Amino acid sequence: MKPLTRFFFAAALATCCLAATAAPPAASPPTTKTLRYAFVAAETGFDPARISDLYSRYVAAHIFDAPYRYDYLARPARIVPNTAAAMPEVSADFRTWTIRLRPGIFFTDDPAFRGQARELTAADYVYAYKRFYDPANKSPAYTDTREQGALGLDALREASLKNRTPFDYDTEVEGVRALDRYTLQFRLAEPRPRFLYRLADNGGFAAVAREVVQAHGDAVGEHPVGTGPFRLAQWRRSSFIALERNPGFREQFYDAEPAADDADGQALLARLKGRRLPMIDRVEINIIEESQPRWLAFLNDELDLAFPVPPEFITLAAPNGKLAPHLARRGMVLARVLNSDHTLNYFNMTDATVGGYGPDKVALRRALALAIDVQREISVVRRGQAIPAQSIVAPGTWGYDPSLRIGAAEHSPARAQALLDVYGYVDRDGDGWRDMPDGSPLVIRFASSPDAASRQYEQLWHSSMNAIRVRLQIDSAQWPEQLKAARAGKLMIWELGSTASTPDVQPALTSLYGPAAGGENLARFASVRYDEVYQRMQALPDGPERLAALRELQKITAAYAPHKYHVHRVLNDISQPWLIGYRRPQFGNQWWQYVDIDSALAAERRK
Question: Cα(162)–Cα(146) distance, rounded to whole angstroms?
Answer without folding.
Answer: 18
